[in-house]
Amino acid sequence: MVISYPNTYFVDNGFRMIATKSASKLATNPGGGSDATIISVRSATLQDLGQVIAIDTDATGIEKVDYWYELFHRYGSRTLKQRFFLVAADGSEIVGFIIGEVRDWEFGSPPCGWVFGLSVKPSARLGGVATLMLETICAGFARSGVKKVRTLLSRDNGLVMSFFRSQGMVAAPVIALERDL
Ligand SMILES: CC(C)(COP(=O)(O)OP(=O)(O)OC[C@H]1O[C@@H](n2cnc3c(N)ncnc32)[C@H](O)[C@@H]1OP(=O)(O)O)[C@@H](O)C(=O)NCCC(=O)NCCS
């Protein structure tokens, strides 16, 4: 099955989405053109992990190798169909990742999709890569039967807030609480 959005194609062969939307913005040729970049979003593999760790280290300033291998073990193998660890690839180069899962009845809410990791390589930003990854993971959530997607982000992270707001996400009817231990 192929679902067509303007300039975007979802290919229903295990999570894969190929976009030409990014092409005009990401192309090395500023005018777009026939050698425009094609970004595909697919499930992460073990071979991708080094590049994913590098993107995360660049974004957060903290290298967490053990964390990423553990996360890949839990989400990358997709032993549960409700877990998603996706990457955006430009050929062999990984330019972004997104991680999320469907959580059932947590926080007293009906099952919904949660996005808890998202990052795009600085050189690939503002080309629609994060939009493409969010669309792909949301398609996966919808296929799992849920009707809503949520995320949590730091209140002072204006960049990530701008991105999610641009995707139509608004304040949820829940608040996060914490205390020192
Ligand atoms: C937030 C982030 C994922 C966006 O990725 P991206 O691929 O550049 O996003 P897109 O190109 O799909 O942008 C979609 C929309 O988001 C908004 N947006 C994205 N970057 C923006 C910026 N720098 N300033 C303002 N709005 C922005 C815009 O509305 C944009 O739409 P437009 O291009 O039509 O204006 C990326 O900037 C990033 O990885 N930032 C660091 C994330 C991070 O800190 N991760 C660690 C904690 S999880």
Number of strands: 8
Mass-distribution shape: globular
Low-confidence stretches: 1-7, 20-34
Q: Strand percentage, roughly?
A: 25-35%
Count of helix runs: 5
Helices and strands, in order, run as EEEHEHHEEEHEH
- Rounded to an integer, what's the Rg over CA atoms? 16 Å
The CATH architecture classification is 3-Layer(aba) Sandwich
Let me know the largest β-sheet.
Answer: 8 strands, mixed
Integer average pLDDT: 84
Give the termini separation: 51 Å
Helix/strand class: alpha+beta
* Small molecules bound: coenzyme A
Look at the structure and give the CATH class.
Alpha Beta
Keyphrases for this structure?
181 residues; disordered N terminus; Aminopeptidase; alpha+beta; globular; eight-stranded mixed β-sheet
Could you outline the blueprint of secondary structure elements for this entry?
Elements: E1 2-5, E2 8-12, E3 15-19, H1 21-26, E4 39-43, H2 49-60, H3 65-76, E5 83-90, E6 93-103, E7 112-120, H4 129-143, E8 149-151, H5 158-166
Parallel strand pairs: 7-8
Antiparallel strand pairs: 1-2, 2-3, 3-4, 4-5, 5-6, 6-7
Coenzyme A binds near residues 125, 127 and 129.
Structure notes:
Helices cover 30% and strands 28% of the residues. The chain contains 5 helices and 8 strands. It is globular and about 40 Å long. Mean pLDDT is 84; it is low at 1-7 and 20-34. The protein has helices spanning 21-26, 49-60, 65-76, 129-143, 158-166, and strands at residues 2-5, 8-12, 15-19, 39-43, 83-90, 93-103, 112-120, 149-151. It has a single domain (2-166), classed as Gcn5-related N-acetyltransferase (GNAT) (Aminopeptidase, 3-Layer(aba) Sandwich), CATH 3.40.630. It has an 8-stranded mixed sheet with strand order 1-2-3-4-5-6-7-8, sandwiched between helices. The protein has 181 residues and is an alpha+beta fold. Coenzyme A binds next to helix 2, strand 7, helix 4 and helix 5.
